[in-house]
Amino acid sequence: MMYAAIIFDLFGTLVDNPSFQENHQDISQMASILSLPSESFTRFWIGTAKQRPTGIFKTTEENIRYICKALNVIVKKEQIKEVVKLRLDRTRKALQPKSDAIETLSTLKKMGFKMGLISNCSAEVPILWESTPITKIFDVAIFSCSVGIKKPDSKIYKLACKQLDVEPQNCLYIGDGDSHELTGAYQVGMDPILIRDPHQKDLYYIDEDELKTGVRREGTFFGITNFFMRLAMILSIVTISLVFSSTGWETYTPNPGADVILGIKIIVFVFPLIALSLTLLCLHFYPFPKERVEAIKKELLELHKKKMQQFDASVN
To answer: Which end of the chain is less enclosed by CB atoms within 10 A, N or C?
Structure first.
């Protein structure tokens, strides 16, 4: 298929995602500037994380004032300005393209592809976008906070296609897979391509599966993982219920002869010990020693080279 346009994700794809440590430091510094308790401010800042990309807070200042109101505190304008400046400085630093990103994008542009970008982001990104070194390469840039829609909502993909004047079926979508963006792109008719974030935790069992099958099935593995996590939660609740009901503890009238304290000890010690033992057993048989990991990396690099050659052949 000949594609008319290529649409990219931003964070984790063209620029690096800030690390957990960097985010934590920034939040602590914001709390310090505002003279607010770090724990309280962190709770509300994280609590409004879903609102920022949807544009509910048009500016960082609005977000800060909302948190201060919720905490029933008053801060000075100068403090808010300093926090806004901190956020802009951090975002400006984060918007530096990855190595080879500009060269790759410029090559695709010269090949005649229309270039689009869709990003789930807060208000700082569109403010700084025009000053980034990659802005001129893109024909269209859609920011969730500006349009009030975020990935994987089909509307944001269709909006990008409309502005590029192409059909979704004639688009590639390239991203690191965050926010289920690849699924959203596929559902509107685009062909999605996964690019792994180099700072992402290595998932060698997925790498090995890709070597065996030729297909990267992260979604399947994460789905199975989440299933077992939920199953474990259900089993823990059922276990507590069974122990409490068998001892009569749930009605505060212990059954005659039942050792309630023993039952509680079983809940808080024996069952976790069993779970820990099973975990350690699984780790013992985890089939990825250092030598195997290095071999997987080399084999995966060769596989990805072959896939890129196939992709080049399909677009030329």
So the answer is: C
